[in-house]
Amino acid sequence: MDPVLTARIAKPGSRGIDGYVADGGYGAWKKVLSEGWTPERLTEEVKKSGLRGRGGAGFPTGVKWGFIPKDTKGKPVYLLCNADESEPGTFKDRLLMEKDPHQVVEGVILSAYAIKCRDAYIYIRGEFYDGARILEAAVAEAYAQGFLGEKILGSAYSLDLTVHRGAGAYICGEETGLIESLEGKRGQPRIKPPFPAVSGVFGAPTIVNNVETLACVVHIVNRGAEWFAKIGRNEKNTGPKLYCLSGQVNRPGVYEAALGLQLKDLIFGDAYGGGMKDGRKVKAVIPGGASANMLTAAEIEDCPLDFDGVAAKGSMLGSAAIIVMNEDTCIVDAARNLSKFFSHESCGQCTPCREGTPWLHKVLDRIEEGAGRPEDIALLERICNQMANGMTICVFADAAIAGPLSSVKKFADEYRHHVENKRCLVGPRAEAAAVTV
Questions:
Q1: Which candidate, 215, 209, 179, 212, places its Cα nearest to that of 194?
Q2: Which of 96, 129, 133, 391 has its CA 20 to 30 A from that of 35?
C-alpha cells in the first residue's frame, strides 16, 4: 500500500503549515465545516471505518467517543491526545509529532469536534523536548491561520488546544494517570468506574486518544470510511498501521503497512527489516512493546500483526513495538532488563506493583549473576501469578510480568542452565565464562 500516515515525513518543510496546506492539509477540517457535518455524522463515519485505538488496547474509537453522556449536566467535554509515548521499543508517535505535526493537530481538531469539545490538550512525554517545541509551533500556526480559536473559519464552533508537557513518568501513559498528571497531581491511575468518558479531567467527561489514532481520523474524513475499512486483514482490523521495528535486524525503523502485515514479512521483507543482522536466527520476538508476552521463533510463523492475529498467539499487538532477539540473546538477561524498567517505573500505589516489581527484578538479577537457587524459577512464577489478573488498580502489574513470565514458560531450559551452571547459556557472558574455565 502507498504511505498514508507517513506520506509527508520525508518532504522538505514537512513541519510547517504552508507545506501542509499545499498538500491538502486542513482539507478534512474545511470539508467538515463547509459541508455542515454534525458531530454525530463524524462519529458515525469513524465507527464505520472500523478504526481501533493505536495506543495499545485496540478499542473501537468511534464507540469510545459514543460513551460521552448525551446530558453532560452543564460540564464541558475534554479531548486529551495521549502523546506520552514511553513504552520501550515504541517510537511511531514521536515520528508523526516531529515530522508532520499538523497532521496530528488536524486529527485533534476533528476528533474534538466529534465529541463537542471546546478545550483539548496534547499531553506529551516530558523527554520529548523537540517534539513539544515543534507541536507548540504548529498549534500557533494553526491559530494564526484560523483553524483554531473562536468561531473557526466563520463557523459557530470554537476550540482551544494546549500542549502540556509531562514530567517523565511511564505510568502517565495510562489514561487516568495522564488525567491526574494534567490536573497537577501525582501521576497515579484512578480506580474505575467512573470511567473518563463520564468523569475524567477536572471531573468532566473526557476522551483520551493516542497520537496515531487521531492522525487516522484526518484520512477517514478525506477519503471515506469505506476506503479505510478496505485496508487491513479483515473488518475487525482495518486501516494503515505504523510498526516500530527494533532489535537485531538489518533495518530497524518505523514502517507503515496495512494492519495485519505478517510478522515474518516485517522482519525479513526487503521493504521492511531486511532480515536478521549477520544472518543470525530469530530466537524470540516481543510483538507489542515491553508489556507483551514473548513469542518464540516457531510462534512467529503465520502471525498477522493486528489485534486479533497477535492475540491468537497468546500475546498482544499493544503499541506495535516489535523487538527482535537473535539466537545469541540471553533470555534471562532480556527478562532482567525488562523487569528493571518496570521496577523503576512503578508508581507505588498498589502493593503488588510496589513490592512485586523490585522483587521480580531482584530474583532475575540473582539468576543472571550466577547466584540463582533451584527454587528461584518457581519463585518467579509465583511472584508473577500474585501480580496478575486485576490485582492492581491499572494493568501495570500485568504489563510488568508479561516478559518475565512468558520467558520462564517458553525458555525454561535456559533458566535451568543459569541455575545449574551459574552462567548464561548463550551470549557474551557465556563465552567469557567458557574462556575462564
A1: 179
A2: 96
- Please tell me the distance from the alpha carbon of residue 252 to that of residue 245, in angstroms, as a whole number: 5
- Asked, as a colleague might, if the bond just before 69 is cis with ω within 30 of 0, I would say no
Q: What is the pLDDT along the chain (437 residues), one digit of tens a residue?
A: 899 999 999 999 999 999 999 999 999 999 999 999 999 999 999 999 999 999 888 999 999 999 999 999 999 999 999 999 999 999 999 999 999 999 999 999 999 999 999 999 999 999 999 999 999 999 999 999 999 999 999 999 999 999 999 988 999 999 999 999 999 999 999 999 999 999 999 999 999 999 999 999 999 999 999 999 999 999 999 999 999 999 999 999 999 999 999 999 999 999 999 999 999 999 999 999 999 999 999 999 999 999 999 999 999 999 999 999 999 999 999 999 999 999 999 999 999 999 999 999 999 999 999 999 999 999 999 999 999 888 899 999 999 999 999 999 999 999 999 999 999 998 777 766 555 54
Could you tell me the three cell numbers for 264? 515474518
* Beta-bridge mates of residue 296: 284
Contact 407/332 with Cβ under 8 angstroms?
yes
Compute the distance between CA of residue 226 and CA of residue 214 in angstroms, rounded to an integer: 18
Place of cell 565464562: 433
Query: Which position has the grid cell 512525554?
Result: 125
